[in-house]
Amino acid sequence: MDLSQLLFTGVAQGCIYGLIALGFVLIYKATEMVNFAQGDLMMIGAFVAFTLIAGLGLPYWLGLLGAVLVLAAAGYLLDVVLLRPLSGQPAFAVVILTISLGFVLRAVAGVVWGHNPVSFATPFSGKLLTVGPAMIAQENVAIIFGTLLLCGLLYLFFRHTRVGVAMQAVAQNQLAAYYMGIPVKRLSSTIWAISAAVAAVAGVLMAPVALIEPQMGFLGIKAFAAAVIGGFGSLPGALLGGLIVGLGEQFAGAWLGQGFKEATAYLLMLTVLVMRPGGLLAQVRRKKV
């Protein structure tokens, strides 16, 4: 694999990590919780899209939209039913709950869809794009453009809508937002819905390049490392961390072997934690009380 192909593949993989990491950061900024089931929500989103597209025969774009809506509803209910009752409890309780939820989601996926890897056809499957001397799979191009489009939509949402601005206020200071009349609980649930929807997009984009199976949710661990590398409170940092991990894995795999590729995300995370504990784009902020 030449340099240009390594770069494209690394950027595409990094976009997937970045999208999952975005989910981690969105929830953490709004609720100061860490959802360790984020990767498993991505896996469920991919399976839902598989059911809609390969099972029910819906067009790819309708399957993508359906998976996003189903996961958004699931994320909202997850906060209302499971997370909201833990309000005021130690963060450790939420960590244990979301780790347990990940195991449950993997078990449910195994029962419903089985443990054999599956896939579905996309408009990009089996097509190549010539970029100079390199032949780039269109699936990777779709991942990159899909990530850019989603990030642009999220930027517009948070900057130019009342709900988005209110969510930023909740992320800054929940108590102050509550006293200003902002429905903090409802907006927190909406953040969980958006985070799950982003995970669904990541799962659908990833499906053409990696077979769908229950264990693919463990990809969330590498995405967590990407969020830490970029700075856990920074949305641009999540994408930057994802790109660093994706590119690092590709070059480590090509130059050092598969064993180093699998360890790259964690080695990079340890390096960043030693040199810059807050992450590359960490923002030091003090909350006003």
Structural class: mainly alpha
Question: Mind telling me the C-alpha Rg?
Answer: 19 Å
Low-confidence stretches: 284-289
Number of helices: 11
How many β strands by DSSP? 2
Quaternary state reads single chain
Q: Categorize the overall geometry.
A: globular
Share of helix, binned: over 70%
Q: Provide the residue-averaged pLDDT.
A: 87
What is the distance, rounded to the nearest whole angstrom, between the alpha carbons of the first and last residues? 55 Å
Give the amount of beta strand, in percent. under 5%
Trace the largest sheet across and list its strands: 1-2
Secondary-structure element pattern, one letter each: HHHHEEHHHHHHH
Q: How many strands, what sense, and barrel or not for the largest sheet?
A: 2 strands, antiparallel
Could you list some keywords that capture this structure?
72% helix; mainly alpha; globular; disordered C terminus; single chain; 289 residues
Condensed summary:
With 289 residues, the chain is mainly α. The chain is 72% helix and 3% strand. The protein has a domain of 202 residues.
Provide structural commentary.
The C terminus is likely disordered. A hairpin with a 2-residue loop joins β1 and β2. The protein has a domain of 202 residues. The protein is mostly helical and 289 residues long. It has a two-stranded antiparallel sheet with strand order 1-2. The protein is globular, with a radius of gyration of 19 Å.
